[in-house]
From TrEMBL, chain B:
SMART domains: AAA (SM00382)
Keywords per UniProt: Amino-acid transport, ATP-binding, Nucleotide-binding, Transport
Record carries keyword Magnesium: no
SUPFAM superfamilies attached to this UniProt entry: P-loop containing nucleoside triphosphate hydrolases
GO molecular function terms attached to this record: ATP binding; ATP hydrolysis activity; branched-chain amino acid transmembrane transporter activity
PROSITE patterns linked: ABC_TRANSPORTER_2
NCBIfam families, sorted: urea_trans_UrtE (TIGR03410)
GO biological process terms, semicolon-separated: L-amino acid transport
PANTHER family, per database record: HIGH-AFFINITY BRANCHED-CHAIN AMINO ACID TRANSPORT ATP-BINDING PROTEIN, HIGH-AFFINITY BRANCHED-CHAIN AMINO ACID TRANSPORT ATP-BINDING PROTEIN LIVF
Name this polypeptide is given: ABC transporter ATP-binding protein
Pfam families: ABC_tran (PF00005)
Provenance organism: Catellatospora bangladeshensis
Entry similarity comment: Belongs to the ABC transporter superfamily.
From TrEMBL, chain C:
Domain of life: Bacteria
PROSITE patterns given in the database record: ABC_TRANSPORTER_2
Name of the protein: ABC transporter ATP-binding protein
Database matches in CDD domains: ABC_Mj1267_LivG_branched (cd03219)
NCBIfam families in the cross-refs: urea_trans_UrtD
Keywords: ATP-binding, Nucleotide-binding, Transport
Gene3D superfamilies linked: P-loop containing nucleotide triphosphate hydrolases
Pfam family, one: ABC_tran
Residue ranges annotated for the ABC transporter domain, each copy included: 6-242
Automatic annotation (TrEMBL), chain D:
Coiled coil: none
Official protein name in the record: Branched-chain amino acid ABC transporter permease
TM region(s), chain numbering: 6-27, 34-54, 60-86, 146-163, 195-217, 229-254, 260-281
Gene source species: Catellatospora bangladeshensis
Keyword Membrane: yes
GO molecular function, one term: transmembrane transporter activity
Family: Belongs to the binding-protein-dependent transport system permease family. LivHM subfamily.
Presence of the UniProt keyword Membrane in the record: yes
Protein keywords: Amino-acid transport, Cell membrane, Membrane, Transmembrane, Transmembrane helix, Transport
UniProtKB/TrEMBL annotation, chain E:
Subcellular location: Cell membrane
Transmembrane segments: 40-57, 62-82, 116-138, 145-164, 194-210, 244-269, 281-306, 318-344
UniProt superkingdom: Bacteria
Keyword line: Cell membrane, Membrane, Transmembrane, Transmembrane helix
InterPro entries noted in UniProt: ABC_transp_permease (IPR001851), ABC_transptr_urea_perm_UrtC (IPR017778), LivM-like (IPR043428)
Entry's Gene Ontology cellular component terms: plasma membrane
Protein name: Urea ABC transporter permease subunit UrtC
GO-annotated molecular function: branched-chain amino acid transmembrane transporter activity
Membrane protein topology class: Multi-pass membrane protein
Length: 388, 230, 252, 295, 369
């Protein structure tokens, strides 16, 4: 007899026979990415707890099963397969880096299982088995560039981590720049986890750009901004727009180094509205008053609610039915109303630019007014033809 | 001064010494003789504490030192010159000596008098010990042991690799130290002439057991040779 | 079939300005057993090091027709030059048998190397007997007593089939009978080989040396038969010591 | 010109950081042959010490200065514990220390995560250390880097003095070179080992304090830099402090110059190639001690 | 048990292989689900790497902390071919179109379209690199800790190099989404099973080869070189060559393992070849028993299995347990798990046997003498 793990070839159906339904949480709890991903898991758990308290999904309590992706992409793939095949979860929430998403994508597609990916990313992707609840490029990076342009900036310097998201994002930025008369004065990458930015900052300094567009991820941001400040570069003279620094990262870098710098996101802890008040309050109550909320946490929290709404609309946990029911599903999220775009499996999100304050919070200085329709392949942007 | 009582010792699962008794009286020289592999070095290692006896005791000056670490035994007045011209190769000759003189009362003087005994070392003080010739290293090793001004000196084949005229000097030195300063010596030596001239008593060790003992002196040579050939 | 003797001309070894061997000329005929003596630090080991390629030297060292200086250690060894070391150097985690088998095998082809040893080769068996370690064939070399290690080293030279043997204090730490046995073994070996022995044991020298060279401060101080050398006052002065020389003379 | 000056200084400061980390290794690895992969976690401990201190001493400058000796003691104590519990059983198999301490480093990272939380934490630097000093024109150098450079110089001098002017240096070397002989020469080998490990690990703690000025303070902060630091010790010549000093600054310069002309990745690869090439020339590192013994 | 120890070694070896084959080919597939079997396939790939490390390190004293590099070379060679095959003739792999700024396939990719070339490259490429590096390094007598740290830096450099060339190597992502294997669809569990069987067979074959190498005169010579490289030189051997053979063979095994890993797991990425996985390879060997033939296999599987099992059961705290396992086994059981067998056996009888071989004596001598 096999070890009690029944499965059928090509598409494992979720086990919903009991009075609970299992979902998988796939985040790095160890390794270099744990600094960011643990908080995402915490946010998912909060949503699960709230939903269970309110009666669960289709009358079943959610049973979260957490796995450690260990900041290692092949491990993400192994754990995804385990969640799908052994635990037979109805959906998986998690992944942060695009590299981890790329590693698990074939696993979800092969097994016809669902992943909810909660982090802003580089676009140019559309897997039938992934729902993207973070921003795609036209909801974050393009508005960020528009904002710089509106501020009269004529040139930028690009700094990023050396992996898919920053490299692809920068490709898009360069296409945008060319079409919009923005000069790109330089482009530099540091390996993930790298903390030696002396040379890069020196290059940035001598390039004398009007602004820096920062796609660094994780630890590197801390080193970059400390170096930036020490080199005498200021937000006033040469602002940095970051797309991967949220409240959690701000807290760990320190406002000493960050005050006045810009970020592009869809959500800030300071975003107004009753849904966010409730979210922030609940999060702090559960994890501590000093713990900030951030965009990826919010997107992950929202993802669980969106999945619940889709399941309820479909009246079933079956993947194909859930997918089928997804189009037009809405949720009154902390960031405001979000709507699922069934065609791309991304969501409509409001774009926001924020400025980091002395108190470590980010306050909005601009928003798109209404949710922006997701356009992962930037089909609606003439300058972007030829990118994909 | 030193009493080794019914010591059993060995390596891993092999036993080398099977209940050895050896005594060194105050101010006397005791020689241990025996074939290769008889366990002579093992006996000295047990005496200084590099090897834990499985049974038996080591008494030094009446005190049971069986459980003490080597450096504690040295602090009580034991010194040991291991077989094989050992030194600290990356330290200079001088540093090899200073190492032992450091923090010791009268260390400086002891160092100087050790150098008097081996004048050849004077020209080599700045050379790293690992570069010395075998005999030079052996002289260094004996000098190092003497710096602690020990009450008991354990010598494992001290003349091995040393030129004849220096051997004679070492012999003189050992005898005079034993006579004058009350130094006791436990001597393992293949050079029978030297061993018996120097020793007040001898023990023949065979396969880890003392098979014959007697008074030293050149007169003992035929008896020892007989004991060794069986 | 003697391969020719050892012929050294103007050998000089310098370490950071310190001249350890200073223009030594030395000839050892095939079949000879040459003893090399001299004070500690005279340069005896260094001379052997130079011949076997361990240290850089100038001058000339010929074994038969072949110049040895400038060659790699392992190439010199393959030319039939074998040596032992003042402090035994064995493969401590291999057995006695394996030590010998390796010593015997430098000339083996890759095919033989990749196969398992099925039986004890004859020369190895002979050496095991000769060095009296047949009973400890399967003992790890690292656990041998000091003297046994010296024997094993000699055994390794035997199977290595070296034509020129350079032995650095081979009997140090051996008992009297063991020295005798070793000396006799050397006598046998020397029949068709060239042997150079470094020793401080004068008894041993008197018993087995055919010719003697005395080094002092890197130079040849004296050379000749045992009697000639022992009688040389310079040798007595720097090496034997008067007292020792007398007492040994009495014993002899 | 300003660029070149800027990069020169960047090279020096990369070298200073490398050296600060390598100093402790120069003792534990260079002198004792222990390949302590948990050295990075001792650095982390130093950084977290700074963080904890700031919870009570709010003045950034005072807390930074106080942190230096306290971090030294904290990391040093961790080192002693490690030596006592594990390392001392491994002196006969030095390469195994790498594997054992790797396991320790995994546990310490998780411990930090459980105590301080997975996200990085923040310390406040004294304002002066977030600014830069102008050298005229466009050239300016970061005060934090100057501070670290000063700290390194101080540490090198102190360590050299300890090793050269006290018997300690001789004893440490003697114990590693021949443990049994050291013991029978009257040296308490256990205490010497522990003291050495205390100082070596303590230096990691000091490096941790300094790194709070430059980079993140989190559970994995120690892992990235440690390999480079080991290379510094190896290339400098194991057991040779002066070698580490020269090599640290040389590698820092090389990296800064190449990185400026190419990219960080290319610079790292070129540094590696340079190291292999260098070891072709000097297989035992920049400074070596030869002996006559075989093997 | 006694009967077993006294048995003719040849017979015992045959029995051992028979038993191994039975476990790998009959028991495991019968008892394990497809998912667990595919995990086992992955562990067996690590075991193949471990066998090579056992030879180079356990026997040869070469602590190679860069086996990930060779694993990666083999893996990338295989993955490049499979990606090209997936894309079809004349097309570029999907990721290149997405991230690359390239209009056509880079020249160094082209030969990998040929299956024979790619297959040969999986083994020969790592061996060639090992040969080049080994020649430089061993001839100049870089060894002990120098060699260990250098090989570790090699792994770091290789990772940085791969990550920096996203357009042609896939960068941090590596090469993912591999679902064909020489015409077979890897999504099909039957084909996955076939891959498992291939891996198991290769492992057994390499074990037989390694056993012969270890028992041969070469194996003895290798230990001799580990103990005293200089002494070997004086016997007329060139120790650099002796080490080189072990290093190159180990590299070839790691390459083959990498190549087999790709169809088994469907991904090859820098995360699999850097410092961390390279150390984990070595730890597996140490945990199992570095000097024994089966120790490395046992250890590699045990460590990988424990990692999976512990992280599944204790996702938040498994690193404590893993770390503790490394510490306890390596520090307190130097002979590894394999030595437990010997200890049990010894407790029953008591004939004197040589002390356990502990490996890196060579380093002690080198640095400390
Ligand atoms: N480290 C060790 N491990 C295992 N066995 C050992 C070890 N050291 C010595 N032995 C064994 O113990 C026995 C006694 O060795 P020991 O060194 O005491 O002899 P010895 O009398 O000093 O000989 P020698 O005159 O040659 O120095 C020998 O058979 C030797 O093989
Ligand atoms: N690498 C080196 N660097 C500096 N000096 C050295 C080196 N090698 C040897 N010497 C010195 O050269 C001299 C000759 O040494 P060598 O070992 O040849 O002497 P030896 O005649 O063999 O002496 P012994 O009888 O004591 O073995 C010694 O003074 C030694 O210190
Ligand atoms: N999608 C990201 N941030 O990797
Ligand atoms: Mg002895
Ligand atoms: Mg000599």
């Amino acid at each position: 007899a096999k070890t009690g793990e029944n499965e059928t070839a090509g598409g494992v159906t979720a086990d919903t026979s009991g009075d609970t339904v299992k979902v998988g949480l796939l985040n790095s709890l160890s390794g270099t990415m744990a600094i960011s991903e643990v908080t995402v898991r915490d946010a998912i758990l909060l949503a699960v707890e709230e939903i269970n308290a309110a009666g669960g999904v289709l009358g079943k309590k959610i049973e979260p099963i957490s796995e450690d992706g260990a900041s290692d992409w092949p491990t993400f793939a192994e754990k995804a397969e385990k969640l799908i095949k052994v635990d037979r979860v109805a959906a998986v929430f998690g992944c942060w880096t695009s590299a981890s998403r790329k590693a698990v994508k074939p696993v979800f597609e092969e097994n016809k299982a669902l992943l909810f990916y909660p982090v802003q990313y580089e676009g140019l992707e559309q897997s039938p088995y992934i729902f993207y609840t973070g921003a795609t490029t036209n909801q974050q990076i393009v508005p960020g560039l528009d904002y710089l342009k509106a501020q009269g900036k004529k040139s930028v310097y690009l700094v990023g981590s050396d992996y898919v998201f920053p490299r692809t994002a920068n490709k898009i930025i360069k296409a945008y720049a060319e079409a919009n008369g923005l000069k790109v004065l330089g482009e530099d990458y540091a390996p993930l986890g790298s903390t030696e930015f002396g040379t890069i900052v020196n290059k940035v300094k001598t390039a004398k750009a009007d602004a820096v567009f920062n796609t660094l991820n994780g630890d590197s941001n801390v080193a970059f901004f400390k170096e930036y400040k020490s080199a005498g570069l200021t937000a006033a003279a040469m602002p940095v727009v970051s797309v991967s620094i949220a409240e959690e990262e701000v807290k760990s870098i320190g406002t000493q180094y960050l005050a006045g710098q810009l970020t592009a996101w869809n959500y800030y802890q300071t975003t107004t509205g009753p849904a966010n008040d409730k979210f922030v309050k609940a999060y702090k109550a559960k994890y501590g008053a000093d713990k900030p909320t951030s965009d990826p946490m919010e997107a992950a929290y929202t993802a669980v609610y969106l999945w619940k709404a889709m399941v309820e609309k479909a009246g079933s946990f079956e993947v194909e039915k859930v997918k089928g029911a997804s189009d037009g599903v809405t949720f009154e999220a902390p960031e405001g109303l979000v709507t699922v775009d069934g065609a791309t499996q991304h969501i409509h999100k409001t774009a926001r630019i924020g400025k980091i304050g002395d108190d470590g919070l980010i306050t909005e200085v601009w928003n798109s007014g209404s949710p922006v329709k997701p356009d992962p392949y930037l089909k609606g942007y003439p300058w972007a033809t030829g990118l994909s | 001064m030193l009493r080794i009582e019914k010591v059993h010792a060995g390596y891993g699962r092999s036993t080398v010494l099977h209940g050895v008794d050896v005594t060194v009286d105050d101010g006397s020289v005791t020689a241990v003789l025996g074939h290769n592999g008889a366990g002579k070095s093992t006996l000295l290692r047990a005496a200084i504490g590099l090897l834990k006896p499985r049974q038996g005791m080591v008494l030094f000056g009446g005190e049971d030192v069986t459980k003490l670490a080597p450096h504690e035994r040295v602090a009580r007045g034991m010194a040991y010159v291991p077989q094989g011209q050992q030194c600290f190769p990356h330290l200079t000759t001088l540093e090899n000596l200073q190492l032992v003189a450091d923090g010791r009362r009268g260390g400086k003087e002891a160092l100087a008098s050790a150098l008097d005994l081996f004048p050849a070392l004077n020209g080599l003080l700045r050379r790293r010990a690992g570069l010395l010739s075998g005999g030079q290293r052996q002289q260094l090793a004996i000098a190092r042991a003497l710096i602690t001004r020990p009450k008991l000196l354990l010598l494992d084949e001290p003349t091995e690799g040393i030129q004849p005229n220096v051997v004679a000097e070492i012999e003189q030195a050992v005898l005079s130290l034993a006579g004058r300063d009350g130094l006791s010596v436990l001597l393992v030596e293949q050079h029978l002439g030297f061993a018996l001239r120097a020793a007040h008593r001898y023990h023949v060790l065979e396969s880890g057991r003392v098979t014959s003992t007697g008074a030293g002196g050149t007169a003992a040579e035929p008896a020892v040779r007989a004991a060794l050939t069986v | 079939m003697t391969a020719g003797g050892l012929s050294i001309r103007g050998l000089r070894v310098v370490f950071d300005g310190f001249v350890a061997v200073d223009g030594v000329d030395l000839d050892v005929a095939p079949g000879d057993i040459r003893f090399l003596i001299g004070p500690n630090g005279a340069g005896k080991t260094t001379l052997v090091d130079a011949v076997t390629g361990l240290v850089k030297a100038s001058g000339s060292v010929r074994f038969g027709e072949t110049e040895l200086l400038g060659r790699d250690v392992h190439r010199i060894a393959r030319l039939g030059v074998g040596r032992t070391f003042q402090t035994a150097a064995l493969f401590e985690e291999l057995t006695v048998l394996q030590n010998l088998d390796i010593a015997a095998g430098a000339g083996r082809g890759p095919w033989t190397m990749l196969r398992t040893r099925r039986a004890v080769p004859d020369d190895v068996a002979f050496a095991l007997e000769a060095i009296g370690l047949a009973g400890r064939r399967d003992t790890l070399a690292g656990t041998l007593a000091h003297g046994q290690k010296q024997w094993l080293e000699i055994g390794m030279l035997l199977v290595q089939n070296a034509r020129l043997l350079l032995l650095d204090e081979p009997v140090a730490g051996m008992s009297h009978e063991e020295r005798e046995a070793t000396g006799e073994l050397l006598g046998k070996i020397a029949a068709d080989r060239t042997v150079v022995v470094i020793e401080h044991d004068m008894d041993f020298l008197r018993r087995f040396a055919r010719t003697v060279t005395v080094l002092h401060a890197g130079k040849v101080l004296s050379e000749g038969t045992v009697a000639q050398v022992q009688a040389d006052p310079k040798v007595q002065e720097v090496y034997l010591g008067h007292a020792a020389a007398e007492s040994e003379a009495v014993e002899a | 010109m300003t660029v070149i000056l800027g990069q020169l200084f960047t090279g020096v400061s990369i070298g200073a950081v490398l050296l600060l980390i390598a100093l402790g290794l120069a003792l534990t690895f260079g002198q004792m042959n222990v390949i302590n992969m948990a050295h990075g976690e001792f650095i982390m401990a130093g950084a977290y010490t700074t963080y904890v201190l700031q919870q009570t001493i709010t003045d950034a400058g005072v807390s930074l200065l106080v942190a230096i000796p306290i971090a030294f003691a904290v990391a040093g104590a961790m080192g002693v514990l490690l030596e006592w519990a594990l390392i001392r059983r491994l002196y006969t198999r030095p390469l195994d220390t790498l594997l054992v301490t790797w396991g320790v480093s995994l546990m310490l990272q998780q411990l930090a995560r459980d105590i301080f939380g997975a996200p990085n934490v923040q310390t406040k630097a004294p304002d002066i250390l977030t600014e830069s000093t102008s050298l005229g024109g466009d050239v300016s150098i970061a005060n934090s880097r100057l501070f670290i450079l000063g700290l390194v110089v101080l540490a090198v001098v102190a360590l050299t003095a300890a090793l050269k002017l006290t018997p300690l240096g001789r004893r440490i070397r003697a114990v590693v070179q021949n443990r049994d002989l050291a013991a029978v020469s009257g040296i308490p080998t256990g205490s010497v080992d522990r003291l050495t490990f205390f100082i070596g690990s303590g230096l990691a703690g000091v490096a941790g304090v300094a790194l709070t000025l430059l980079g993140p303070i989190g559970p994995t902060m120690g892992t990235n830099i440690i390999i480079d630091a080991f290379l510094v010790v190896v290339v400098g010549g194991i057991g040779q402090l002066k070698g580490s000093v020269i090599v640290a600054f040389t590698l820092g310069m090389l990296q800064a110059m190449v990185e400026y002309l190419t990219t960080l990745s290319v610079a790292k690869v070129i540094v590696f190639v340079a190291i292999v090439a260098f070891l072709q020339w000097r297989p035992q590192g920049l400074f070596t001690l030869r002996t006559r013994s075989l093997a | 048990m006694k009967a077993l120890t006294e048995m003719n070694p040849r017979l015992r070896a045959w029995l051992g292989f028979g038993l191994g084959a039975l476990v790998l080919f009959a028991a495991a597939p019968a008892l394990l689900s497809d998912f667990r079997l595919s995990l086992l396939a992955k562990y067996l790939c690590f075991a193949i790497v471990a066998v090579g490390i056992g030879l180079a390190w356990g026997r040869g004293g070469l602590l190679t902390l860069g086996q990930g590099v060779f694993f990666g070379l083999g893996g990338y060679a295989m993955a490049m071919h499979l990606k090209l095959a997936d894309a079809g003739p004349g097309n570029m792999p999907d990721f290149m179109e997405l991230y690359g700024q390239l209009d056509e396939l880079p020249a160094w990719w082209a030969p990998f379209a040929n299956p024979a070339f790619a297959l040969a490259a999986t083994v020969l490429l790592p061996m060639l690199v090992a040969f080049g590096l080994g020649t430089l390094v061993f001839r100049r007598r870089v060894r002990g800790a120098y060699f260990a740290i250098l090989s570790q830096a090699l792994a770091a450099a290789m990772v940085i190099l791969l990550i920096g060339q996203q357009g042609t190597t896939g960068g941090t992502n590596g090469l993912t989404d591999i679902d064909g294997f020489f015409g077979y669809d890897l999504d099909d569990p039957v084909n996955q099973r076939m891959v498992y069987f291939i891996i198991a067979a290769v492992l057994l074959g390499l074990l037989a080869l390694t056993r012969q190498l270890m028992r041969s005169r070469y194996g003895e010579l290798l230990v001799a070189v580990r103990d005293s490289e200089e002494r070997v030189r004086f016997l007329g051997y060139n120790p650099a060559n002796v080490k080189l053979v072990a290093y190159v063979v180990a590299a070839g095994m790691a390459g083959l393992a990498g190549a087999l890993f790709v169809p088994a797991v469907g991904i090859i990425s820098p995360a699999l070849i850097g410092i961390v996985p390279s150390i984990e390879f070595v730890i597996g060997v140490a945990v199992g028993g570095r000097a024994a033939l089966l120790g490395p296999v046992l250890g590699a599987v045990a460590v990988a299995w424990a990692k999976t099992a512990l992280s599944e059961r204790f996702p938040g705290t498994w690193t404590y347990l893993q770390g503790a396992m490394f510490v306890l086994v390596v520090a307190f059981l130097p002979g590894g798990l394999a030595s437990l067998w010997g200890m049990v056996r010894r407790r029953r009888e008591t004939p004197p046997a040589p002390a356990p071989v502990t490996g890196d004596q060579a380093l002690i001598k080198e640095v400390a003498v």
